[in-house]
Amino acid sequence: MKQYYIYKIICLKDEWNGKFYIGKHYGELNDNYTGSGKLIKEYFKKFPKEKDITYEKIILEICDEMTICDIERFYIVEGMKSELC
Fold first, then answer.
1. What is the CA radius of gyration of the chain?
2. Distance CA 30, CA 35 (A)
3. Are 60 and 75 within 8 A, CB to CB?
4. Which of 2, 7, 27, 78 is at 20 to 30 A from 65, Cα to Cα?
5. How much is the pTM?
6. What ranges make up the beta strands (E) of 1-85?
7. What is the pLDDT of residues 23-34, one digit of tens each?
């Protein structure tokens, strides 16, 4: 079932280890979507997607279409407090 959700991708390889990306998506919770940001795309170009080997995806919150942007903004602001974001 497709849902709106906020997710966090944690990189697990080399100099990227521990760095994370926060995003929003409409789709299946267990789909292979990992984001559209420039740096996360660069990471997956270097380390092809192998779940549980190159990254971990965490669903932070399931939302509705009306609130997803505000909720994503909250998580990004909080995440930016860390140098790993």
1. 13
2. 14
3. yes
4. 78
5. 0.91
6. 3-11, 20-27, 55-63
7. 999 999 988 899
